[in-house]
Write a structure and sequence with these properties.
By secondary structure, the protein is an alpha+beta fold. The chain folds into 2 domains: 94 residues, Arc Repressor Mutant, subunit A (Orthogonal Bundle), CATH 1.10.10; 44 residues. Helix content is 57%, strand content 16%. The chain is built from 5 helices and 6 strands. The chain has a 4-stranded antiparallel sheet with strand order 1-2-4-3. Strand 1 and strand 2 form a beta hairpin. Helix 1 packs across helix 3. The chain is flat. The termini are far apart.
Length: 145
């Protein structure tokens, strides 16, 4: 599936923020001028600024910790890069409001996430069994010694 320009912009902004970030006791933090990063460093079209920032926030990729302005840098907590699957579903929402979208689109989004959850649960179950089997074998080998 081809990725949209919007997703590419979100990924570029996140990766650039990450490259300039620091790690503190609470995680990864970007301190800087996001508008400068966006327009001057990445040379992205200005009309994308707000939608990219909002999308990254809605996906849970970034969270503003301190608002900047003037000579004061803003501070952003970085959590994880944008996920293309979640991105596809994020366009159904806009800052907490539902856009005009059909019920079937929302049902498809829920069904897709449900399918992914089932797969994650299955993988977790397999890993749990492997750990249990390894513990059992380790216990047997220690009793033989």
């Amino acid at each position: 599936m081809a990725q949209s320009k919007m997703f590419d912009h979100c990924l570029r902004v996140y990766e650039h923020m990450l490259s300039q970030s620091e790690v503190d006791e609470d995680g990864t933090v970007y301190r800087g001028f996001l508008s400068v990063l966006f327009a001057q460093e990445l040379k992205l079209p200005v009309p994308y600024y707000t939608p990219v920032k909002r999308t990254l926030e809605e996906l849970g990729c970034i969270e503003q910790q301190k608002r900047g302005g003037g000579k004061t840098r803003s501070e952003w907590r970085l959590y994880y890069p944008p996920d293309p699957n979640l991105f596809d579903h994020a366009k159904l929402f806009d800052v907490g409001r539902r856009k005009n979208s059909s019920r079937s689109s929302l049902e498809l989004a829920v069904a897709t996430l449900h399918t992914r959850l089932i797969e994650v649960e299955h993988q977790l179950d397999l890993l749990t069994r492997e750990v249990h089997d390894a513990d059992y074998r380790l216990g047997d080998s220690q009793q033989v010694s």
